[in-house]
Every structure is written in structure tokens, then in C-alpha cells.
Amino acid sequence: MAPGIPTTELNEDMQNKTIWWLIGVLILAITSVNTLLALRSSNEIAGIQKSLTNTGEVMMLLDELYISVTLAESGQRGYLLTDNERFLAPYQEQLQKVHTSINNARAISSEIQGQQYRIEQLIDLVNQQFSELSRTVELAKKEKDLLAVHEVKVGNGVLSTQIGEAYRKAMLAESDFRESLYLDFAIAQHRADNTLYLSSALTLVLLLAVFYLARLNLKNERRHRSQLEAQNNTLAQKVEERTFALKIYADELARSNRELEEFAFVASHDLQEPLRKIQAFGDRLLNAQQQQLDETSLDYLARMNKAAQRMSKLISDLLAFSRVTTRGKEFSSCDLNKTLHQVVDDLEISIEDSQAQLELDSLPTIKADTTQMHQLFQNLLSNALKFKAPDRPLMVKVRCQQTTGPTLPGEESGLIWYRIEIHDTGIGFEQQYADKIFMPFQRLHGRNSYEGTGIGLAVCRRIVERHGGKISTTSQPGKGSTFSILLPQDSAMVTIEGNK
């Protein structure tokens, strides 16, 4: 359960979400049903309209066929009775049309069972009638009028009666079918109207339900917003109180750091003073009583002076370690190339004593603490000179290349970074100790073998981290070590972004 939200409110939210989900499903279901009913009604009405159109076309074609026969027969009778060829014009005109009417009638696709058979019977009778009409006209033209009139009285009357009967049966079937279609159309239209009324009513109910739920949701939202504002105000007050407490704590911590720094300075000064006296009186005693003291006493004095010197060095290194962040200078333009050569000049005697060969790349100019950069290079080069292998010459290479650094929080890094590598051919060490050597007081070799307090590399790491960079090392026993330093071109930008 989310902190600060009552269980009752969570239950109400879940109930509201469930109701909205059910309303959505109901709307989808009703819409789908209404759509299906509307489509069914539409398809049903369209089918009935298509059937009405088809039966109308059937009745029209039957009328055309029957009218053609009637007009042709009338023209034929007029010609036979008057012997005037002017009456043959309707007959000849219908004789031309009857073939088209017969083809159209045969192309009819009636939906009434048995109607196609009745239409075919009518067409056969019409063909017979026109054959008889043509034959009697030909007889009349050959001046066989009496025979032609006799043929008309005997044959045409029977065919006309049969054609009329076939026509009436076909038309009656189509008329009855059309009446049934009109009845179906009225039923379908009434059903469509009912579907529309039902859909409208359901839609209105759903709209009212949605409106009610919207009002309820708005009311709950206002209540939740009011509660959220109250919680935000409470949280803001707590944040303000916490910020004030943190400010007091930060001020107290800063004061404590200043006191610790002052204590470290005073302690180092106070500790150095008795150490200097121990060394001074030890030297005096050694010089004044050297002839009177035996070898054991002289050895004790030498050990005492050496321990005092080591303790003095340790105190100085601890003070330097504590001052990396507290007494660091502001970042400014620092020519690393110049700084490195100054360090080489400072270590000139040590370089000559170890007979070391140096290969130095050109280094860039960056924004950094020049004093600490000098200390960084001096510690690393001093380490390389100190841990020289006794059986081979020492080679120290300083290489530099522009590279990409870590991305700043929330954006792509536009800074330029440099990787500086200091490689030596000294005694090296096991890679498993690569992180350990950057811790204070960590030594991989005995005090009698190599001098040092174990603070130098810890100081190097603190300097590099203060500049927003990283330091690491790789090494193999007997094959030397490589210290890799990653530094930004503008350390101020990295440390500012990192503190946001």
C-alpha cells in the first residue's frame, strides 16, 4: 500500500475504476448490438427493395410482351378487314419489338417459385401467335383473304385466349408476391423503428450513467486534490524543517572540520616540536659521546633518530593528506607540461642516482589546482624511481591522449577529457593489490626494503577525485606498473555538476 494513502480511498478508487471499466464494456456491447441490429434491418430492407424492383421489372417486361402481341394482332386484323397496308405498320413495328421483348422476358430472374416456367409458356405462345399472324398476313398478300380470315377466326382466337390466360397467371403471381413484399417491408421498417427507439433509449441511459459517474469522479478528484494539497503542505513543512536541520548540521560539520583542521595543524606542530628536540638531542648525544658509547648504545641512538625522522615524515604526510580538500586552491589555468618539467627538475638528483630514462609526451593545459597537480606528478614519479628493479635500467614513460569521459548527470558530456599514463619498468606488484595501494598506510613492501609512510598514493587519489577524475593502476611483478589518470579539461565544471 502506498504510504500516506488511506485504505478507504484506495478501495474507492478501485471501485470507481471497476465501474468505469464495466460502463466501457457495456457501452461497447450495446454499441455492437445496435450496430448489428441496424445492419440486419438495413440489409433486410435493402433485400426487400431489391425484390420489389425485380418484380416490378418482371411485370413491366410481361406487359411489354403482352402489349406487343395485342398491337400486332390488332394491326393484322385491320389489314385483313380493310385490305389497307396502312394497318400493317403497327404489326410490323411490333414484329420488330417482339424479339427484344422475348429476349428480355427470357432474361428475367423471378424470385417466385414456378414463375420461370410460366414465363417460358407465355413466350412459346407468343412465338406461335406471331407465326400465325405472319402466315395469315402472307395469305392475305397472296389474295387469299377468305382463307386468311378463316385462319384468324379458327387459330388466332384460341392462341389469344391462351396468351391472355398465361399473362394473367404470371402477372397475378407477381402481384401477390409484390403484396407480400410490401407487407414484409412494413414489418422490417417497424422493426427498424423499434431498434432505433431502443438504441436511443439505451444511449440516453448510458449518457446519464456516464454523466453521473463523471460528476462522482470529479467530486472524488476534488476531494483527493484537497487531500493531496494538504499532504503536500505537510510534506513541504517537513522538508523545510529537515532542510533547516540539515543546514544546522552542515554548519556544525563545517565548524567541526575547521576545528579538526586546526587540531591537525596544532597537533602536527606540537608533535613536530618534541620530535625535533629528540632528533637534536640524539644528534648531540651521538656527536658528544660517540667515543664513550659502546656499539649497542650507538645502535639504539641511530634507531631512535630514524624512528623520530619516520614519525616526523608520517605527521607531515598525514597533514598533507588532510589538507587536499580543506586547503586546496581554486581551479585556474594549469599548464601540465610546465608542471611536469618542474617536477622532473625537482627530482633531478633522484633521477641521476637511479640512472632512469624518461620519455615525456606533451601535456595539455587544464583548469586545476596547480600546486596539487605538482604534488600528484611528484608522488607518482617518486614512486617509480623508488621501486626501481635492481637488475635492469629504469624506463619511465609519460603518455597523454584526448579521450571521452563519464557523462554528466542529465545531459551528454561536452567536456574534453585527457588520459595521462605513467608507465615504469620497476618491480611491479600483484594486480590483486591495485585498489589496496590507494588506501592510507597500505604498504606492499617492508619498511626496511623501501622507505615511505604509505600515504603518497592515497594523496594522489584524493587529488584526482577532487578534480572530478579517476586514477587506477595495472601491474605485474617484475614487469613494472602503469598508473592511469583521467582528468577533465575543466575540473570546475565536473565538480559543479557533481554537486548539483
Overview in brief:
The chain is α+β, with helices and mostly antiparallel strands and 500 residues long. The protein has helices at 7-82, 88-106, 115-141, 145-289, 295-326, 336-346, 348-354, 370-386, 456-466, 491-498; strands spanning 332-335, 357-360, 365-368, 395-403, 417-424, 470-476, 480-488. Residues 266-491 form the Histidine kinase domain.
Overview of this structure, please?
It is elongated and about 185 Å long. It starts with 6 loop residues before the first helix and ends with a helix. Residues 1-5, 150-155 and 496-500 have low confidence and may be disordered. The chain folds into two domains: 7-221, Four Helix Bundle (Hemerythrin (Met), subunit A); 331-500, Heat Shock Protein 90 (2-Layer Sandwich), CATH 3.30.565. The protein has ten helices and seven strands. The relative contact order is 0.06. The strands form two sheets. Strands 2-4-5-7-6 form a five-stranded mixed sheet, with helices on one face. Strands 1-3 form a two-stranded antiparallel sheet. The chain is an alpha+beta fold. Helix 1 runs antiparallel to helix 2 and helix 3 runs antiparallel to helix 4. Keywords: Kinase, Membrane, Phosphoprotein, Transferase, Transmembrane, Transmembrane helix. This is histidine kinase. Pfam families: CHASE3 (PF05227), HATPase_c (PF02518), HisKA (PF00512). The chain crosses the membrane at residues 19-39, 195-214. It catalyses: ATP + protein L-histidine = ADP + protein N-phospho-L-histidine.
Structure keywords:
disordered C terminus, elongated, Four Helix Bundle (Hemerythrin (Met), subunit A), 10 helices, two-stranded antiparallel sheet, 71% helix, single chain, Heat Shock Protein 90, alpha+beta, 2 domains, disordered N terminus, 500 residues, 5-stranded mixed sheet
